Amino acid sequence: PSIGVPAVAEHLFHACESGQGWQGVMQYCTHDAVFSAQAEPLKDITTLRAYAEWMKSIAVVAMPGCSYELNAQSFDPYTSTATFFGTFRGTHTGHLQGFPQPTHKSMETQYVYNMHVNAHGQVDSITKVWHSAWAAAQV
């Protein structure tokens, strides 16, 4: 992990982004960790469990072979918040319920996560900042 960024937050980031789902992230967070985002596809997702499963469906079903890049990360010890800036890349080739038919178009989208790490060393909340309409327009 990077200097100052709790390993638990960095491991959770990589597990989530690589499509490991709840099974891959649950060891790094509280069982009731909350999730929030002001992005249309995520408007009804309020738990990290649900978000991790959503990311798994994107990475495994809708965009198999997708990738991500961790552009920057930081940690604010005063608020116990880890921040990750990433870029996600994928091609829409898979059929996923609730999504349009595969377009076979590729997309690249940037996003930021703010993760709060509690006193027990577990992530208990994540906020995602993402311009989902920008991403959707590409595919």
- The proportion of residues forming helix, as a percent range, comes to 25-40%
Average of per-residue pLDDT values: 94
Please state the structural category.
Answer: alpha+beta
What is the first-to-last residue Cα distance?
33 Å
Task: Strand order, main sheet: write it out.
Answer: 1-5-4-3-2
User: Strand percentage, roughly?
Assistant: 35-45%
- Rg calc: 15 Å
Give the tally of β-strands: 5
Main sheet, how many strands, which sense, barrel? 5 strands, mixed
* Tally of DSSP helical segments: 4
Q: What sort of overall outline do the alpha carbons produce when their principal axes are compared?
A: globular
Are there runs of 5+ residues with pLDDT below 50, and where? none
Order of SSEs: HHEHEEEEH
Describe the structure.
It is a single chain. The chain is an alpha+beta fold. The protein is 27% helix and 36% strand. The chain is built from four helices and five strands, in the order H-H-E-H-E-E-E-E-H. It has helices spanning 7-17, 21-25, 48-62, 132-138, and strands at residues 29-37, 67-76, 81-91, 106-117, 123-130. The chain has a five-stranded mixed sheet. The longest helix is centred in the middle third of the chain and has 15 residues, at 48-62. It is globular. The mean pLDDT is 94.
TL;DR of this structure?
The chain is 27% helix and 36% strand. The protein is an alpha+beta fold and 139 residues long.
